[in-house]
């Protein structure tokens, strides 16, 4: 429990974590505001009658960039070398002196990242859906019992993506490469989406499967994966990666 | 007895030495070559993927130039990272203090750094872009749609200029933020998520640096209001210069 408190305190004191939090909340809500206002003008012109079922959720799929950054810096900050005049040390040596059981240290870190990503996802979902309801007014898609599992899916997707980024960075011990690959793959046309054009198996890559938890209709994609299957596939990816990360972390030099 | 004369160098010599120093720093950074090499490899892999998709007919075009350059929109991440590393490597371990002791004229040092970056990036960008197009043309063979050599030269020079200016923008942002990861998050978040989303949603986005730069090489729909390649180049250059001037002013006034 004290290890978890220590990890939470480390996370909260990283400036990049606050940039991640800001990105995670601002990206989906600002984009949602722009989309909703253009949808609103389409509706008032009479060209369309209702906003799409994926309004808001589509934007939340891009806001995951905040969760990615969170997962990456949580561990890459441990490995960044300080300047020569402050000893040239790395925080990881101090951390492992304080918490020598490596598995316990890693579990505390994973829990801190998961909790922070969940909180970020809840705040981002709240603001994004709030913005859509304010801008669209009576044209906004009604929130019902159907939206509860979908919003839970958003939170799940963000937490899993943060853990995925965390697991990769444990292995690379440096933040830039995982950050570049994962953010590039959150783009409007993702690399994994292009791979589905080549092989249908790519539908089972973690991000393609994971978004099924809350996105109902993917453009130009005929593969049918239920939200539950998508969630389970992503869980399996995250579990496997975290086990590999844990094995590597407990066995290698710090 | 004659008074001791102090040897002074001319402004031109000072600038040449500053450029040589910045070149030496940039080419001796292993990260420079790792980033450029990694970008080249990733771009070739993506070009193969796009070509396979093109052979299956799902890209909607058979032009070797268009398919071969499609991967650049992802490979630009490498040039963003290179720009950020160039600027932020000064702030890892306090190298900036040595740099500014040796080159106290900050505007000159800053300009020299960006010039050195441009000198390294231009050939690298040309090689990266050309290798993707050559690979695609080789794989497509006779099935490729014919293109004029003018279109090939135009697209390749457009891509090269776009990537070089993107790297310069990234270096300027890196100098402003001074933290590698934070700068990478801000820039990649803009180039990969915010920029493309705004492009689809607001007409004014065509004047933003990434979308204007895309007009330099990416085939756009025929539209009277669309930005032409020349206008795109002008807009992106204006953004780059404005950003560098802004950062230089701050760089001269703030603590290091």
Radius of gyration of chain B: 21 Å
**What does the average pLDDT of chain A come to?**
88
The largest contact between protein chains, plus residue counts on each side, is: A-B, 37 and 35 residues
| Shape verdict of chain B | elongated
pLDDT < 50 stretches of chain B: none
The number of distinct helices of chain A, counting runs of at least 4 residues, comes to 11
Runs of chain A in which pLDDT lies below 50 for 5 or more consecutive residues are: none
Structural category of chain B is: mainly alpha
Using the CA coordinates, give the radius of gyration of chain A.
20 Å
Sheet-strand content of chain B, in percent, reads under 5%
List the helices and strands of chain A in order: HHHHHHHHHHH
**Average pLDDT of chain B:** 88
Distance between the termini of chain A: 23 Å
Distance between the termini of chain B: 43 Å
Using the alpha-carbon principal axes, give the shape of chain A. Answer: globular
Q: What is the total number of structural domains of chain A? A: 1
Task: Figure out the total of helices of chain B.
Answer: 10
The overall strand count of chain A is: 0
This entry's quaternary arrangement is heterodimer
Number of beta strands of chain B: 0
How many strands, what sense, and barrel or not for the largest sheet of chain A?
Answer: none
Organism (chain A): Microbispora rosea
Keywords (chain A): Membrane, Transmembrane, Transmembrane helix
Transmembrane segments (chain A): 17-36, 112-136, 148-168, 175-195, 228-249
Protein name (chain A): ABC-2 family transporter protein
